[in-house]
Every structure is written in C-alpha cells, then in structure tokens.
## 1
Amino acid sequence: MLTLNYFFQNPNQQYFKKPSAKERPTICPLCFNDVITHFPRHLLRHHKDNPEVQAIFKAKPKSKERSSMINALRKRGYFYLNMEKNVLNPMRNSKNSSTKYFVCKYCLGHYAKNLLHKHVKICKSKPMDCENPGKYCLTESQTFMAEMLYKNTEFLKTSRLKNEVFQLMRADDISALAKSDPLICLYGESLLQKHKRQQIANVVSNKVREMARLLLALKRFQNIVGLFEVLRPEMYSKLIEATKIISGYDDSTKNFKAASLALHMGTNLKLICNIAFKIVLENKKIPNIDWDDREKKKNELKDLIQLVESHWCNDISSLALKTLNEKKIKNRVELPLTSDVLTFQSYLDEIAQKAYECLQYETNVNKNYKILSECVLAKTVMFNRKRIGDVQYLHVETYKKNSILTNNEDFENSLTPVEKILSQKFKRVITDGKHSKPVPILFSQKIQKFITLILKVRETFNIVPKTNPYLFANPNSLKSWMSGVHVMRRLANASGAQKPHLLTSSRFRKHIATTLQLMDMESTEMEQVATFMGHTKKTHEEFYRLPQDIYQTAKVAKILLLLEKGRGHQFKGKNLEEIELDKDVYYSSEEEAEIQDEEKEIMPMKQDITRSNDQNEENQISSFNIKQAEVEKVDILNLDELIKENNEMRNENHKEVSQLNEPKVYKKRNTVKTQSETKPILPHMQESKSKNSMRIKWSSEEQKIIKHYFRENIKNKITPRKTECQNFLEQYGSQFINKDWVRIKTFVYNTFRNK
C-alpha cells in the first residue's frame, strides 16, 4: 500500500542539500524516467515534440522566462520523486533538521511550513481568480496530498467532507492522518449526511480529529497503516489503552482529564464498525481498504461490536461517568451578579450609541460597523436569554420577514394596556433553533434602529458580500458569521465587570430560570416560557432551574427545622412557599451554640434542674389543689449551689418521686419562704417558653430602648450573645416582661440585617 509522509520528515528519507538544483536527481514528469543531471538536455533530447518543451526552447537562452518554465517542470519531477521513492528535494533547504515541508498545490514545489504562504501569494501557477491566496495554504496542501494518496479517484473530489470540513482543520499531524485514512473520512461523511446546516462542519471536524487521535495512539502499540485493519476482536484491549491515553486517564486516581471523550468513544467505535461492515457487505472498492476473506472480516466486525456493547461500560464508561459527576459536585454553579449585568448593559449601550453616530456620519465605516454589529449581537443574546447559536446564525431574510400575528380579539382583550403596548413595540422573529425547532427572538425598537443602519451600511459600502446570508456576518467574508462566544467574552472583559467570566449566554438562561422559580407561575405559563427559551418544560425544570444547593439550603432546611421542633402537623395542606418559619425557631436551634465554653458545660445541668423543679411544682400543686405554690425558685446564677443541688437530686431521684405528695419531705429539701422574701423571677432566668406562644408586636418605646442599648452591635453588625441579652433584661426587665433573650437577639439581628 502506498504511504505518504505529509510533512516529509522521515529519518530514513534521503535529503539532497547541494546548492545547485542542476545536481539534484529528479524524475522527468513527461516520461517518468530518472534524471540524474542535465535536466534541460534530457528535455531537449527526448521530448522535443512536446508543446511545453517547445515553448521552453523558443524563449531566449538564460532568460528568466526560460528558467521559470524549466523550474516548473523540475518541481513536478521532484514531487513525483517524493511520491515514488520518498526522496525530498525542497526548493529551499533549512539548516534545522526538524523543519516540516508542505507542497504547493499549484506548482507542486516543496516549501517549509513557515514559507509556503509567502510562496503561494507569488506563485505563477495559481489561477488568476484565486481569493485570499495563502490563507488556507497549509490545510489545502494536506487535502491535495490526501487526494494524491487516493490516486486522484472520485473518493474525495465530490465529498462534502472535503469542501466543508477539511479547510477548517488545523494543519497538524492529527488532521493529516484524518485526511489520509479513508475509513475516518467515511465516518465524517456519514455525520455530514444527517445535517444540512453549515455550522455542523465544526462538530464534524472535532469528531474526525478524535478518531485520528485514537489512531495515533494505536500506532504506539503496533505498526499499522489505517484504522480499518484495527477493527478486530483481538485489538479490543489496545483500543481500551488508546482511549485511556487520549482521554488522559490517571491510573492512580482512576480519573480522566477528558471524561466526556472517553464516554462517547465507545459510541464512535460502534459507528465506525457499522460503516466498515457496510463496506464489506456491499463489497465496495475503497482506496487503501482491502480484505482477504469477506466472511471472516464480517465476523470480526460483529464480534468487535459485541465486545464494545458488552464490556465498554465496565472498562471505560463507568469510571468516566463517575469522573464527570464528581467534577459537577466540586464545581460551584455561579450566576452573574446583578451589578455586573447592569455594568455590561450600560457599556454595550454606550459603545453601540457611539458607533451608531459615527456610522451616520460615515466615519471609520468598517471599524464602527463591526463594533455596532457585535454590540447588537450581545444585546440580543442578553435581552432574549437565548443560546448563542440561535442569534448568531440568524439570516437577513428571516429578520426582514414580518412575523405573522394571530388575529384573536378575545386574546387581545385579555391583555393589559402595558402588554398591548409591548406587543406593538417589539418585533418578533422566528428562526431555526436547536434540533430545527422554531425559536422566537424579540427585538426592541432601539435594536431595530441599529439593525436598519447595519443593513444600510452593508449595502452602501459593500462591507459584506451579497453571498453572505447572515445578519451578523463577518466583514469581507463570503459565508462566515460572527462568533457570539468570542464577542461576548471580549465585550464582557472590556466592560469592567467584577466577574466577566459569568456573563455568558448559558448563565443568563440559568438566571432567568432562577427568577421564574421564585414566581408563582402556572404550568401553562411555564410551558410558554420554556417554548420561548427553545426547549421543553422538562429540560427547563431539570437543567435551568435554581441550583440544588440554594434550594436545599433555603427550602428543605425549613422543613427539617419544623420537624426538629415537632411542629410538622401545624402546616398540613400547605406548600413550601406558604410555610413561614419564625426566626426564633432558627435561633433557638442554632445560635445557642455561640455561648461561652463554660456555659456550654453547665447548660445540661441547668435544664435538668429547671425540668425537675417544674415537675415537683406541678405534682405538689395537684396534691394540695393550690393554684399558686409558694415554692423557692432556684437561683440559676448561683452556679456552685446549682451543681451541688443537681448532684443530690440525681442521687435521690427515685426517693423524691415517691415522696412528692408529703409536705415534710419537700420542706426538708426546700425551706418555704414568705412571698416578701421570695426573690422575683425575671424572664431571662426562665427557660424559653413554647415557641407556639403568640408573638407580641414591639412598641416604639421598646424599639428605641433596645436599639440604643445595642447600638454598637447594630453598627458593627454583630449578633449579641445570650449573656449580653440577659444583662439587658436584668437592667430593663420591668419594661420587657413578655420578651425573653431569644426575641431580644432576633430583634437586634433583624435590625442590622435589613439595613
């Protein structure tokens, strides 16, 4: 099989670097015989009847015209010499042995990679109507060599892959291998057949390069020529290893750098096998694809497909999917800041208005046309919250068509006056979106004014050729459009936003979905919004809604707190939005953890003593049928006495329960005092009452006192501790009889939080 080195860089290849081109061996392009020296003499002696040779010798001897015609034939000879014998004769030698050489597709001369574009611009063999000579010379050279490898058959000449994809591919080892492998080319052609849009060429280019990278990795393990000979069951383990190489698999961490590539490589392999099976089944004659036994090759392809279907999941897909899910967990979902959105919007308005005014006076038309077009593109994406592709691929004819409005009087009468005005001021355009679905785009009157001027300038100054159908077309381009991703990124970085990397179309779409979730929208309304966004209601709910971390923290935590307090039955029949959670529920559950370490150790003792005393009082009252028992209350502040008494109560707990009804026993432990001697009990000395008690509105006098006392906390936005609230109640306890320390703390927190 004929092999070809695209870059003509082979350690076994012969290089002739003598200064004189006459001394270099070549092949005569007319008779294909070897010519060692005196190439002009060979032409004169053996091909004097050839029209080209006759034209050469009609020219003046030693003239530039005669010399250029001889060199043209000599270049063709060098090209055939390289094709047949793998001997390279570049037109200009380089001292660097790693220099890569490419072929000029017009004159067939070999030039260094960094010099080819200069030669193409002055090449005398190129046609006169060649546009942008030298722009795509490297990739065109690769494509030309691929055609020569296929021996100029019809395999690539009429292929969409050659006309739409090859010129987009970077001229490197990967693309060279992709173009030279016929099975990879057929794979790309099959992908193109399923689509008709021009922008699919970028996707196909990526897919083709992925398979070429796989083939390059396979060549590390075995000396193979093409992908077709790899499609055997015994090569399955090599396919696994090659996939791990190109996807960056780390054996120590079991992670992939490019997990998505590893995930869909199994699907790509099955498609490749199906294409190869079709070739064998139809017994097609494809250049550089052959087999010995047809039935054997069919069975090999079937077995390999079965191996991929049954074992690829365990070998590759499972770990790749786990890597993807772990990355999603670690990556924080951020939405654009409101301040950044406003900054970006004002920046776009400013530069768009300046460009609009300059275009009106025809100042720097090319520059201001591009600025205004980019601003309109960014503003349209930002306002409509659309995908980049829905806007950047919009055609001029589609925009000029007036949208068909439904003449429904009942529906129009149901609109509010403001909604009727909006329906008249905005222009609605329907374009083809993702999966060929109709997607509406709204244009305000200001944007319509900008677009009208853009179209006028295009026609007047011929900035964009008439063959370019796109509304946001690149200047001086026949069929390309502005890249919305690059436009948004560049303008966001120049706007001065704090986080410009968040100002993207996908995050704008998540932003509107988050806002819609906060609204009380019906199912039909949500479906209409999802249709406008260009996806289904299910997609809207699964991928564009409020991030799960916010929802779980803000919504689900509310339910958990209520269940913790035993109040779940109170909200029967209510949804999450109707449940209102009191601030004191949160503080009583969480904020008590902020008290000092000493208080943390003593709190269990306080609760035990208070609970035990409350139980004793209730039993004594039921025994003596007394409404108010004059019993000594425990002074919680006396910690030494508290600890001692608590230990005694725990040791004699079983005795106290049986003797609660006897007054003598109670008096031995607690001496009854008169009402005048009893120490008054302040609210802060008691445990917090039930949270179900009715809340009392704060009076203006109470608010004034508490704000003055905690003015430093409010100023510095510091939540007061429990002891600080208790000290306040000791000082102003008579005026805050119905308030405990939790409510004091909550009031101070809400005061500085709302500022």
Note: Confidence is low (pLDDT under 50) at residues 1-12, 14-19, 583-693.
## 2
Amino acid sequence: MNTKPKTNSQKTRKIQLYRRAKCDSIKDDIHLPDIKFKKEILNKTHINILWNTPKEDIESSTSKIYNNKDKNSWITQKIKKVMRRIDGVIHKKKKSNHATKKLKQLKQTFQRKSSQAYWKYLEYIMTPEDNEDIRAPTKRFWTYIKHKKSYIKW
C-alpha cells in the first residue's frame, strides 16, 4: 500500500514563436479541415465528432505551423545529458544504495554547468556584439525582465 500523497507536477507551457511560422503551409492547413468536414457531413457522422473535428484540426495545425519553445534558453545539450545521467543514477540508487557519491558529484556538475550557462546567457543579453545595433541588447534585456517579473498581490 502506497501512503505517499500524490503530487501533481505542473504541465509545461508551450511558448509559440510566431516570428518563425511556416507561412507556406498555412494555406494548405486551412483548406484540409474544410474538405474533411464536408466529407464527414456527407457521411452523416455523429454530431459530437462533427463538433470536435474542427477544433482538433485547428489545434494540430497550429502545432505544425508554429515552432514551440518550452524550455529555458540557456539549457544546452550537455546540460540535458547530465540531467539524464542524474536520472539514471537516481534509478540505480533506488535499487541499491551504492551510487550516493556519484549522484552527489553529478548534481554538483549539473549545478555548476547550468549556472555557468545561465550567466553566459545573461552576458549575451546584456552586452552588444560587434556588428550589432546598440538597441538590440536593451530590447533583449527588457524582454528578459518582462518574463522574469512576478506579480505581487497586495
């Protein structure tokens, strides 16, 4: 019998990048649900299916057209690799308590690499590159501040 309370982890929110939309495929994706819907009307399908089909088609087409971002910008492949190794060591540690030293070492490397990547990302936001416009880093900075600010309830 499991006595631990069930914890619900927060679902990651997708950030749709509209600037990188695939504009060529938008027209094709708009016409396909219309044709599909007309065929279903002719086949006399159930009303619930007719109601849900356009909604599902629109949701699937937006995921195809727009690129999604659901991670922090400074998380690199190397950091993800360390995270996966930590998960593997935790899995081994649950079976036998021999991997505590290795787990501690991996957690330290993860903390070090992620903080270095984060500060490198902040440095990229704050400082302009040689061939870049002076206003670009300030825009990146203020968008970063906007995403970081938390709303205080009085």
Note: The beta strands are 15-17, 67-69.
## 3
Amino acid sequence: MSEDRICGPYFAERTVSGFFSLYVLENYHMPQLQDMEGQVIFQQDGAPPPFSHRTETVLPYNFPKNGLIGRGGTISWLSRSPDLTPIDFHLWGYVKDHIYVLPHPQTLDLLRD
C-alpha cells in the first residue's frame, strides 16, 4: 500500500509458510513494485511465518539503503509491534467496511469482487 496505489490483494488459499510468503513476494509483489524503483520502503512486521531466513536474505537485497523497515532491515521495527502500521491504520478498516456490509458475501469469488 502506498500513497497512490495498492499492490494486491493476494488471496492465500493455503497455509502461509515462509517458503510460500517468499514465493508471493518474488512472483507477485516484486514485479508490481519494479516501476517504483527508488521510491519503495517495504515494511515487514517480522511475525512468523512470513519472516523466514530466506525472506531475511531476499528483502535487504531488493530494498537497500533505508528501504526496509523490520527485523533485519535498515530501520528497526519490533516483531508484532503494538505500534500502528499502515495496514492497521487504513487497510483493515477498509476491509471490514466491505466485508461486514449486508448481505454478506456467500462465496470466496463474491468476497474477492
């Protein structure tokens, strides 16, 4: 999520593991961020399972020089920090406003729409 765009959403239809998180990052999110080179600051909350040794290796390579907020990044951020993140501040409220509208979506496809 940035000031002018949202990358995603990506719907995980399986258990989210470190390997799966890295796959989504490299094959889904990174291509969307290519045209924003030099302007992206990636925030990783460091909570398992998305944070893994593989992720810890790949993220600093893709977001050098103050482009990574989180465990192992150039800007420290505690795992599962109680401080508000952009997702906590904006996205979850937006999602709740759309999910809790009546009638409730009855299928995954309707929820995605």
Note: The first strand starts at residue 42 and ends at 43.
